[in-house]
Specification:
185 residues; 5 helices; Aminopeptidase; 8-stranded mixed sheet; globular
Length: 185
């Protein structure tokens, strides 16, 4: 049985990282991430207009967790757990098929330091072992080679390439889908 109903938010730890629940004090850092064109270059989502929009977004993350719809972590370094440097989480949970989509973003100051790899290892293990996912998918913009390479490094396999299946800012964009099966199923 797929499980996204936890009695409390499952904070996770790695060698260098704390993966914790989003909180309203993260609004400034999340706003900075979601309005940074370098971070958002391949994330085809509307940019927030102001901090109140981000605070609503954080509230919806937490409500989504409470309903069992998603599970999104703040990525923070252990030496400064209050400071958000990125996020990683599961969205678009498909209960019938025990599948969820993973997504992540990281502040450019922390790129190429193995942080997303470290967070992925922990969240993939959590997805398979604690949530009982059968598979995890990732949907990337085909231009995002860095994301493609990190997914492949962690065992994801390309499942599909959809032509112009996503409409954003007046144009149809392609999507590339990667998947990872639970090795224990």
């Amino acid at each position: 049985m797929l499980n996204l109903n936890f009695t409390q938010f499952p904070a996770l730890e790695t060698h260098r990282l704390i993966l914790r629940e989003h909180a309203l004090p993260d609004a400034d850092a999340l706003f900075a991430l979601r309005t940074n064109e370098t971070v958002m270059q391949y994330i085809d989502r509307e940019r927030p207009k102001d901090l109140s929009e981000i605070k609503t977004f954080i509230t919806s993350f937490n409500e989504g967790f409470e309903k069992g719809d998603n599970l999104a972590w703040v990525i923070a370094l252990k030496e400064n757990p209050a400071h958000m440097i990125g996020s990683i989480g599961y969205w678009r949970t498909d209960y019938a098929n025990h599948r969820a989509e993973i997504g992540y973003m990281l502040h450019p100051d922390y790129w190429r330091k193995g942080i997303i790899s470290e967070a992925l290892i922990k969240t993939i293990a959590f997805g398979f072992e604690n949530m009982n996912l059968h598979s995890i998918k990732a949907n990337i913009n085909p231009g995002n080679d860095a994301s493609r390479q990190i997914l492949k490094k962690h065992g994801f396999v390309k499942e599909a390439y959809f032509k112009e299946d996503y409409y954003f800012k007046g144009q149809f964009l392609d999507s590339e889908i990667y998947g990872l099966l639970n090795p224990n199923h």
